[in-house]
Design a protein that fits this description.
heterodimer; A: 79 residues; alpha+beta; B: alpha+beta; Jelly Rolls; Arc Repressor Mutant, subunit A; four-stranded antiparallel β-sheet; 9 helices; 7 strands; globular
């Protein structure tokens, strides 16, 4: 298990995740980031407010960063 | 399993009824995916596990003690015997059970209809009343579990409340800075839940902050 932090990038701002989550693999962290991004989209659409995020940024314990753009969480278009 | 200590879990036989002095007891409902959401919270001067004294001992949901809690415990069978002999005891337990039922109905509406920002505001105000302090020893992970959302959603909404000067978040602690502002930011469910308590029991968790009542 390793600790992954899920910061939220909003333009020039980076909203820090102060706690992080224990997850088994980097792939689990990526899956978690996509689940989070889907929920952020859903809340923004339901409330009609701005998204307030353009990427979920996964930070591992060694300082490595993975950017998961919000657009990756959107459903694929048919055809 | 959520953070916290389970007092009883769904389908358990409830052998004890709890009378909390401090802390927060949450009634939570889990689903088969492993997710769960809080349906109501109880604390000082409330009763947890009332159904076992009024009806049968089978637990229909799960109760967990959040944060550090203390209280008194009584054997469910003994309390059932007392309730059978005393109309006043029986009615007191019925009032507490109805207050919890009213709270869980309100929370069902709140979870379905209100935005996370309002729900978080309601939840923080309820917790502050039960803990009787402005600094709440709560992690974002715990908050997200109780509200049934992803932690990132709590991170975003907590930042909004913090930018508005209503709370300050430090790792593992949330400080409520502006109670009136938080009341304005949250939905009507906080006041509604307190109103149900006042109607049924004569005081609400908010009253407990400032006076000794309900003993």
């Amino acid at each position: 298990m390793a600790r992954y932090y899920f910061h939220i990038k909003d333009g020039a701002d980076l909203i820090q995740d102060p706690e992080g989550s224990e997850l088994a693999t980097a792939e689990d962290a990526r899956r978690q980031a996509l689940i989070s991004a889907r929920e952020l989209w859903a809340d923004a659409i339901k409330s009609g407010r701005s998204l307030g995020a353009d990427a979920v940024v996964i930070a591992d314990e060694h300082g490595g960063l993975t950017f998961v753009p919000m657009a990756e969480a959107l459903p694929k278009r048919p055809g | 399993m959520p953070l916290g200590v389970a007092l009883y879990s769904a389908d358990d036989i409830i052998s004890n009824v709890y009378f909390p002095y401090t802390g927060i007891m949450s009634i939570i409902v889990g689903v088969s995916s492993g997710q769960f959401v809080e349906a109501g919270m109880l604390g000082r001067n409330s009763v947890v596990g009332t159904g076992a004294a009024l009806d049968g001992p089978a637990a229909l949901n799960t109760a967990i003690a959040q944060v550090e809690s203390s209280g008194m415990v009584i054997d469910a069978g003994v309390l059932k015997g007392l309730a059978g002999k005393s109309e006043a005891m029986r009615m007191a337990l019925v009032h507490h059970e109805r207050a919890l039922s009213a709270q869980t109905q309100q929370v069902a509406a709140c979870n379905a209809l209100h935005e996370l920002e309002e729900r978080l505001g309601r939840w923080l105000l309820q917790s502050r009343d039960l803990l009787q302090r402005d600094t709440l020893p709560l992690t974002q992970e715990f908050l997200s579990q109780m509200l049934g959302v992803q932690r990132s959603s709590v991170t975003l909404v907590a930042r909004k409340l913090q930018e508005a000067g209503l709370i300050r978040y430090r790792r593992g602690h949330i400080h409520v800075l502006d109670v009136e502002g938080l009341q304005d930011a949250c939905c009507e469910c906080y006041a509604a839940i307190n109103g149900h308590f006042t109607k049924l029991i004569g005081w609400s968790p908010t009253d407990l902050r400032t006076q000794q009542v309900g003993h």
